[in-house]
Amino acid sequence: MASKRSNVWKYFDQVSECGVECKLCQMKLVYHKSTSSMLNHLKLKHKTFSLEPESERHEQPLITSFTSARRHCDPARRERITALITRMITKRHATTELR
Ligand SMILES: [Zn+2]
User: Fold this and answer.
1) Which residues contact 65 (CB under 8 A, 6 or more apart)?
2) What tens digit of pLDDT does each residue of 17-75 get?
3) pTM of the model
4) CA of 59 to the centre of ligand 1 (A)
5) Which of the residues 13, 20, 48, 65 could staple to 31 if both were Cys, CB 3.0 to 4.6 A apart?
6) 99 C-alpha vs ligand 1 centroid, how far in Å?
7) What's the CA-to-centroid distance between 14 and ligand 1, angstroms?
8) What is the DSSP letter of 9?
């Protein structure tokens, strides 16, 4: 039973033998002995969730999570900001890779 205590269970209820329900949007998912589909659902549908940084320590926030929060920007400006952020991240990433 202890193995069930993954953090994703904060966001899901088990509703049947092989079914779980998302507490955030009540969507039902098939549960096949692994929490990966639930994790995927949380990532895709609820970008704001946070889990313990186990295997995903290197994951960076999506560019879209920055740009979508800036709806008031005009498209040209938004594109420029996106490009700048992308360049910044790529550059930094490349530097760390080299070490
Ligand atoms: Zn959901």
Assistant:
1) 47
2) 889 999 999 999 999 888 888 988 998 899 855 555 555 555 566 666 666 555 566 88
3) 0.46
4) 21
5) 20
6) 39
7) 13
8) G
**Counting every residue, how long is the chain?**
99
Q: Which domain holds residue 24?
A: 2-45
Classify residue 51: in a domain, yes or no: no
What separation in Å is there between the alpha carbon of 73 and the centre of ligand 1?
A: 29
Does 12 share its domain with 39?
Answer: yes
- SS3 sequence of 45-61: HCCCCCCCCCCCCCCCC
Distance from the first to the final alpha carbon of the chain: 42
Structural domain total, the chain: 2
